[in-house]
Design a protein that fits this description.
heterodimer, A: about 300 residues, mainly alpha, two-stranded antiparallel sheet, 2 strands, about 75% helix, about 0% strand, globular, B: about 400 residues, ABC transporter involved in vitamin B12 uptake, BtuC, 2 domains, two-stranded antiparallel ribbon, 17 helices, about 5% strand
Chain lengths: ~300, ~400
C-alpha cells in the first residue's frame, strides 16, 4: 500500500511538472497581453516534433553525435526545439493575435483556438506519417538513482528542469531590468509605456522566453511518455489553460500551484476511485469551471475589481 | 401599382437566382464550387460597398411570402431536379440540420455576443437522449425528439448559469471546459455506448409509414432521403420563423443591448438572468431537436460527431455567414456543409480548412459574408412612397 501511494505521488509530481511548464507559458502570455492564447499546447508539440525531425528524419543528430559527446548534442537539440517553438510563437502572434489587439477580445480567443487547429493539422499533414503516434527518441540518460525505479534519471531530470526553470524565471522576473519591466507591463500597461518601457520589445522578449519554454516542455513530456502524437497539443492546451486559471492567470508560481492541484486531483481520481481512470479528466476540468465561476483570480492571483 | 409588381418580380428573380446557384453548386465538382464561392465572395463584397445588398435584402424582406413559396417549391422539387441523387440530398439534409443548430448558436454569438464553444454539447445531448430512449427503452422517435429538446434545454441551463457570474472571455473559457467534459463523459459512460456509440437507432414513423422507405413518384424511385429532406426543411422553416421573430422582438433587442453593455441594459430594466438564460436555452432547444433529427436520420451516433471540432465547425458557420442575422447564418451553414461534403476525398484537409477559414474571416471580415443589417425601427411609413423616400434619405444621410 505504501509503495502504491508513493508511486501515485511520483506520478502526480511528474504530471504536475509537465503541466506547470505549459501553464507558465499561458500565464506569461496572459500577463503581458491580457489574453489567453490557446494554441500554446500545439506549439509545445511542434517543438517536440522539430526535435523528432532532427533526430529521425534528417541526419543532423547523427552528425552532431559525430562531433560532440552525447550530452552536448542532446542539449543542442533541445535548444533547437526551443528556438523553433519561439519562432513559431512570434509568427503566430503576428498573424492571429496582433491584429485583434485592444479590439475584439472574443475574436482573438477564437482565432487562437483556430490557430491551434491549423498547427496541429499542418503537423499531421506535412510531417511524414504525422497522423500516427511517433516513437520519441530517448535522449535523456537511462538508468536510475540508487537503482530505485521511481527515481529514474528521467524523472529526476524532469523535476530538476522544472525547478531550474522556476528559479531562472524568478531571477529573471525579479532581478533583471527586462523582467521587472515585464512585471510593470502586466500590472499597468499605460503607466509602463508612459515611463518609457518599450512595450513591443518586452512582448517580443516574453515570446522568446515563453516559446523556448514551451519547446522544452514539449520535449520533456514526449520523453516522459516516449511517444508523440500530433494531437496531444489539444489536450496540453486545455490542461495548460486549466492550470493557469486555477493558479491565477498571470502568476508564474500560480501555474505551479495550479499544476499541483490538477495533477493531484487527476491522479487521486484515477488511483483511488474505482473506475476513475476515465473520469480523471472530467474531475480536472470541473475544478477549472468551479474556479472560474467562484474564484476567477485563481489561487495566487489578485482580485480585480472592474469599475463601471 | 407598377412598382409593387416590379418589386415582386425582382424579388422572385433574385430568389430563383439563389435557388439556381444552390443547384449548380450541388451538382458541380469541388473545383467549380470553390470558384463559385470565390466569385460569390467578390459579388457580396461589391454589393455591400455599393449598397445594393441593403436594397436586395429589403426587397426580399418585404416579399417574404413570395420568396418563401419559391424556396419551398425549390426544396419540394429538389429530389426530382437532382434525379434522386442521394448524395446531394444528403448534403442538403445535413445543411438543414446544422442550419437549425447554427440558428440556435446565433442567439449566443450574434444575440448576446458571447462565443459559446459548446454548441456540440446541446446537439449531442439531443441526439444521445433520443437515441438512448429509442434504442434502450423503445420509446417512439417523436417522443424521443421532444425529450431530446428538453434535455438540451437542461444542458442550456447548466451552461448558461455560469454566464450570470462570468462575462465575455471567462464565459467562453467555461464553455470550452464544459465541452471537453462532455466529450470525455460520452466516451467513458458505457450505458450510453461509450466509444462505440449507439447503433441501430430507429427511423421516424408516421402512422406506420417509416421515413426510411423510398417513395415512388412519376415513375422514379426516390431514396428515403426525400422524406427526411422534407421533415428537416419543415422544421428549418419553423426555426427560421422563430429566429426572425425573436430577432425583431423585444428579446432580440434586449440581447443586443446586453451584448453592447450589460450594465446599461440592466439599468434600463433588462433582466440579465432571464435574457441570458433565454439565449442559451432557446439555442439549446434548437440544437437538441436538430441532434435528434440527425440521430434518427443516420441511425448511428458516436462521440466523434459531438466533440470540440464539431463545435468549431458550427462557430465557423455563424462567423463565416454573418452573425446575428438569419440569412447570414443559413448561408454559412449551407456553404460550409457543401464544401465539407465535397471535400470528402480530401478528408485530411478538413479541419485545416475550417481553421484557416475561421482565421481569415476574423482577420478580413469579422462580420461575415452577410453582415447584420441596421435595425429599422420605424415601419409605419414603409408602405407609402413618402415613407420610402424618408427612409432612403435617412439611410443616405447615415452613410
Amino acid at each position: 500500500m505504501g509503495s502504491f501511494i508513493a508511486s501515485q505521488m511520483i506520478n502526480a509530481i511528474m504530471l504536475a511538472c509537465t503541466l506547470a511548464l505549459i501553464g507558465i507559458g499561458f500565464s506569461l502570455f496572459f500577463g503581458v497581453m491580457d489574453i489567453v492564447v490557446f494554441c500554446l499546447g500545439d506549439i509545445a508539440v511542434a517543438g517536440a516534433f522539430c526535435i523528432l525531425g532532427l533526430t529521425s528524419l534528417t541526419g543532423v543528430y547523427a552528425a552532431l553525435r559525430g562531433m560532440f559527446p552525447a550530452i552536448v548534442s542532446n542539449i543542442i537539440l533541445v535548444i533547437c526545439g526551443g528556438v523553433f517553438s519561439a519562432i513559431l510563437v512570434t509568427v503566430m502572434y503576428r498573424t492571429v493575435v496582433a491584429p485583434f489587439e485592444g479590439k475584439n477580445i472574443n475574436a482573438s480567443l477564437l482565432s487562437t483556438v483556430a490557430a491551434g487547429y491549423v498547427i496541429r493539422e499542418l503537423i499531421g499533414i506535412f510531417y511524414p506519417g504525422g497522423r500516427d503516434p511517433q516513437n520519441f527518441p530517448n535522449l535523456l540518460p537511462a538508468g536510475c538513482l540508487f537503482n530505485n525505479p521511481m527515481l529514474s534519471w528521467r524523472n529526476i531530470i524532469i523535476i530538476g528542469t522544472t525547478a531550474l526553470v522556476l528559479v531562472l524565471l524568478y531571477w529573471f522576473v525579479n532581478r533583471t531590468k527586462t523582467g521587472i519591466s515585464i512585471q510593470a507591463l502586466s500590472q499597468n500597461k499605460e503607466a509602463s509605456i508612459m515611463i518609457g518601457i518599450d512595450w513591443h520589445k518586452m512582448v517580443f522578449v516574453t515570446f522568446l522566453i515563453g516559446g523556448f519554454l514551451l519547446g522544452v516542455a514539449g520535449f520533456l513530456s514526449a520523453s516522459y511518455s516516449s511517444t508523440l502524437r500530433f494531437d496531444t497539443g489539444a489536450m496540453y492546451g486545455l490542461l495548460g489553460f486549466s492550470v493557469a486559471v486555477v493558479g491565477g492567470l498571470g502568476s508564474i508560481y500560480g501555474a505551479l500551484a495550479g499544476a499541483l492541484v490538477i495533477a493531484f486531483v487527476e491522479v487521486f481520481v484515477t488511483g483511488f476511485i474505482p473506475g476513475g481512470a476515465a473520469f480523471s479528466g472530467v474531475a480536472g476540468f470541473l475544478i477549472v469551471v468551479l474556479f472560474i465561476i467562484f474564484k476567477p483570480e485563481g489561487i495566487l492571483g489578485e482580485k480585480s475589481i472592474s469599475k463601471v | 401599382m407598377a412598382t409593387r409588381l416590379n418589386d415582386k418580380i425582382t424579388a422572385a428573380l433574385i430568389a430563383l437566382g439563389i435557388c439556381l446557384l444552390v443547384y449548380i453548386s450541388l451538382m458541380s465538382p469541388l473545383l467549380v464550387v470553390m470558384i463559385i464561392v470565390a466569385l460569390l465572395v467578390v459579388l457580396l463584397t461589391y454589393c455591400e460597398k455599393t449598397g445594393i445588398m441593403d436594397k436586395v435584402l429589403h426587397l426580399l424582406g418585404s416579399n417574404t411570402i413570395l420568396t418563401s413559396v419559391i424556396f419551398g417549391l425549390f426544396i419540394f422539387l429538389l429530389p426530382i431536379i437532382v434525379q434522386g441523387n442521394n448524395d446531394l440530398l444528403h448534403i442538403m439534409i445535413i445543411a438543414g440540420i446544422l442550419g437549425i443548430v447554427a440558428l440556435g448558436l446565433n442567439f449566443q454569438i450574434g444575440g448576446i455576443g458571447q462565443i459559446n464553444f459548446a454548441p456540440a454539447v446541446f446537439y449531442g445531448v439531443g441526439a444521445y437522449t433520443t437515441a438512448f430512449l429509442s434504442v434502450k427503452l423503445g420509446l417512439s422517435p417523436w417522443l424521443g425528439t421532444v425529450a431530446g429538446a428538453c434535455m438540451a434545454i437542461v444542458a442550456g441551463v447548466i451552461i448558461g448559469l455560469p454566464a450570470l457570474k462570468a462575462r465575455g472571455y471567462y464565459l467562453s473559457l467555461i464553455t470550452i471546459a464544459l465541452q471537453t467534459i462532455f466529450t470525455l463523459m460520452i466516451i467513458n459512460i458505457p450505458a450510453i455506448g461509450g466509444p462505440n456509440g449507439i447503433p441501430g437507432i430507429p427511423p421516424y414513423q408516421i402512422f406506420g409509414y417509416s421515413l426510411h422507405s423510398s417513395i415512388r413518384v412519376l415513375g422514379m424511385r426516390l431514396p428515403y432521403q426525400v422524406n427526411y429532406l422534407y421533415l428537416v426543411y419543415i422544421l428549418l422553416a419553423l426555426a427560421i420563423v422563430a429566429a426572425s421573430r425573436l430577432f425583431k422582438s423585444r428579446y432580440g433587442i434586449a440581447w443586443n443591448a446586453v451584448d453592447q453593455d450589460p450594465v446599461v441594459a440592466a439599468t434600463q430594466g433588462v433582466n440579465l438572468t432571464k435574457i441570458q438564460l433565454l439565449a442559451f436555452c432557446l439555442g439549446a432547444a434548437f440544437a437538441g431537436v436538430a441532434g435528434s433529427l440527425y440521430a434518427h436520420y443516420t441511425g448511428f451516433i458516436s462521440n466523434e460527431n459531438f466533440d470540440f471540432s464539431q463545435s468549431l465547425i458550427l462557430i465557423c458557420m455563424v462567423i463565416l455567414g454573418g452573425s446575428d442575422n438569419v440569412p447570414g447564418v443559413l448561408t454559412g451553414a449551407l456553404l460550409l456543409t457543401m464544401i465539407d461534403q465535397k471535400l470528402m476525398d480530401y478528408s485530411n484537409l478538413r479541419l485545416l480548412m475550417y481553421g484557416i477559414v475561421l482565421i481569415v474571416m476574423l482577420l478580413v471580415r469579422a462580420k461575415g459574408l452577410l453582415p447584420k443589417r441596421v435595425r429599422i425601427y420605424d415601419d409605419r411609413d414603409r408602405s407609402t412612397g413618402a415613407g420610402e423616400a424618408k427612409l432612403a434619405a435617412e439611410a443616405g444621410g447615415k452613410r
